[in-house]
Design a protein that fits this description.
Helices cover about 25% and strands about 25% of the residues. It has about 325 residues and is an alpha+beta fold. About 40% of the residues are buried.
C-alpha cells in the first residue's frame, strides 16, 4: 500500500513539475490576494497626475507615457501621435478609463496595439474602436465570428478574477511591418520571450523602442505559460544586432532602482546585460534563489524570474 501511495505522490510531483507554469498561474489566481489599487497617494518623479490615478509624462515630441502607478503592477502604456492618427501601445489595465486621458492629449483617431495579451495590458481594450494586432497564424486562429478572444493562458483572467474580453481587429500587421501615422511611421517587431506573440514598437526617427514586458526595470517574468528562455535569448540577439545603440527602451512596468514613479526606461546596454544573463543562466553558470520561480540577478535594474529547464524556461 505504501509503495502505491509513494508512486502516486511521485507521479503527482512529476506532473506538477511538468505543468509548473500552469499550476503556479492557477494557484496564484485562486489563492493570491492583493489590493488592485493602492489607496494611498503615490509619489511621482516626473510628469503629472490626472484624476488621482493616471500619471502623464511627455517623453518626446508627440509621445506620452500614461502610467497607472497606483495599480499594483504599476503599468505604463504609451501614446505616439502623428499628423493623421495616433497609436496607443497597450490599452491600460481597464481599472480606470484610459480614453479620458488620451482625449486630453489628442483628438485624432486612435488605434491600440497590445504588446501582448496579458490582462494588465489588454484589460482596457474595450475603450478602443480600432485595434491592430500582429499578423501571425496563431492569433488569426483565435478569431471567431469576426471577434478575437485571447485564450485562458494568454489573458490570465484568473489573476484578478476578470472576464476575458473580445474585440474586432481592424488592422493586422506582419512581423516587421509598419504602421503609418502621418509624418511618422513605426515598425512592429515580433519579440518572443515573455510570450510567443509579444511585440515591440520601434520609432526609428525618435530613437524609441517600446518593449512591453520583454524587458523592464524590476523583475522580469519568464516563467508564465508561453514564456521561453531560448526565445528570450534569440530575441535579445536579434535586437542587439539590428537596433542602434543610442535607442531608448520605454518599458511597461515601473520603477527604476532608486526612483519614484515615472515612465520606466532602459538602454541598449541594459538589453546587453540581459542577453549576457540569459546565456549564463542557460549554461548553468549562475546560482538562483527560490524554488518556483527561480530568480537570477541581471543588473542593478533587473532580476530574472524563470521556471524549470524541462518546461522550456
Amino acid at each position: 500500500m505504501f509503495k502505491y501511495l509513494a508512486a502516486l505522490v511521485l507521479f503527482a510531483l512529476v506532473l506538477a513539475g511538468a505543468y509548473a507554469p500552469y499550476v503556479f498561474t492557477e494557484y496564484y489566481g485562486a489563492f493570491g490576494h492583493h489590493e488592485i489599487v493602492d489607496p494611498l497617494p503615490v509619489k511621482i518623479a516626473r510628469g503629472r497626475m490626472v484624476d488621482d490615478y493616471f500619471q502623464v509624462e511627455e517623453i518626446a515630441p508627440g509621445a506620452w507615457a500614461i502610467g497607472e502607478p497606483r495599480y499594483y503592477q504599476q503599468n505604463y502604456s504609451y501614446l505616439v501621435v502623428g499628423h493623421d492618427r495616433a497609436l496607443m501601445i497597450d490599452a491600460g489595465t481597464g481599472t480606470r478609463n484610459i480614453m479620458s486621458v488620451i482625449r486630453r492629449l489628442t483628438a485624432l483617431p486612435v488605434t491600440v496595439i497590445p504588446s501582448h495579451l496579458h490582462f494588465d495590458h489588454t484589460g482596457g481594450i474595450g475603450a478602443f474602436s480600432s485595434v491592430a494586432m500582429l499578423d501571425v497564424p496563431e492569433l488569426r486562429a483565435e478569431v471567431h465570428d469576426g471577434l478575437f478572444r485571447p485564450g485562458r493562458y494568454e489573458f490570465f483572467p484568473m489573476a484578478d478574477r476578470l472576464q476575458t474580453p473580445q474585440w474586432r481587429v481592424s488592422q493586422w500587421v506582419k512581423p516587421g511591418g509598419w504602421i503609418e501615422l502621418g509624418g511618422r511611421r513605426v515598425q512592429v517587431l515580433n519579440t518572443p520571450g515573455h510570450t510567443p506573440t509579444s511585440v515591440m514598437v520601434f520609432d526609428p526617427a525618435a530613437k524609441m523602442l517600446f518593449t512591453g514586458d520583454y524587458i523592464y526595470p524590476t523583475t522580469l517574468y519568464a516563467f508564465s505559460p508561453g514564456a521561453s528562455l531560448s526565445a528570450y535569448r534569440q530575441t535579445a540577439a536579434r535586437l542587439l544586432a539590428t537596433i542602434p545603440a543610442d535607442v531608448t527602451l520605454w518599458t511597461a512596468h515601473c520603477c527604476r532602482a532608486g526612483e519614484d514613479a515615472a515612465a520606466p526606461w532602459l538602454s541598449m546596454k541594459d538589453l546587453a546585460d540581459l542577453s549576457t544573463a540569459l546565456c549564463r543562466v542557460q549554461r548553468g553558470e549562475v546560482a538562483s534563489t527560490g524554488v518556483y520561480p527561480r530568480r537570477f540577478p541581471v543588473s542593478r535594474q533587473m532580476t530574472l524570474a524563470t521556471g524549470f529547464p524541462w518546461t522550456g524556461q
